[in-house]
Write a structure and sequence with these properties.
0% strand, mainly alpha
């Protein structure tokens, strides 16, 4: 995770800005230690990135290429059409979440019988 802890000047600056010791930042970068949520938050704010960028690999989260293209296309549509699409997506997400919850309840009920 190239946060700047690898050299003395950049690492010291990051340490000063986050309140995390340079040695600890080096441990995080080397994979020898895992930062707490509070440290991830401070690093993200200091570096001006999302916590996701610090935690996940580039392709580990986010939409696939086809959805990304569709979202880009939607972003060029008039606002009222974007709102309709957003409502449709919200409805589909809720439908999927409810179906998943119902399946878990059904499975739990079967296991208890």
């Amino acid at each position: 995770m190239g946060w700047g802890g690898g050299n003395n000047s950049g690492g010291q600056t990051l340490a000063d800005m986050t309140g995390v010791a340079v040695l600890q930042i080096r441990r995080y970068e080397g994979g020898n230690s895992q930062p707490t949520l509070d440290v991830i938050r401070r690093l993200a704010i200091t570096l001006g990135v999302s916590a996701d960028m610090l935690v996940f690999d580039e392709q580990e989260r986010g939409p696939g290429e086809q959805l990304r293209y569709q979202f880009e296309t939607i972003s060029r549509m008039p606002q009222h059409e974007q709102d309709v699409i957003r409502e449709l997506l919200d409805a589909m997400i809720i439908k999927n979440q409810v179906a998943g919850a119902m399946a878990r309840v059904s499975q739990t009920t079967k296991e208890e019988s």
